[in-house]
Amino acid sequence: MKISHRFIGGLLLVAGTAIGAGMLVIPVVTSFAGFFPSLALLFFVWLFFFGTAWLLLDVNLSLPGVSNFISMTERKLGPWGKGFCWIVYLALLYSLTAAYIASSAPLFALAIQTIVGGQIPSLVGVIPLLGIFGVFVYIGTKAVDRTNRALMIGLVLSYGLLLSFLPQHVQFARLGMMNVGAIWLAVPLVFTSYGFHIVIPTLTAYLHHNVKHLRWVIFIGSLIPFIVYALWELLVLGAISSEDLAAAWQSGESAIAPLSRSLQGHSIGTVAKAFSFFAILTSFLGVAMSLSDFLADGLKMRKMSFEKEVSCLLTFVPPLLFVFFYPQGFILALQYAGVLVALLLCLLPALMAWRLPAYQKLWRKVWLLGVMGISFAVVILGICSS
Question: What are the chain's domains?
Answer without folding.
Answer: 5-385 (1.20.1740.10)
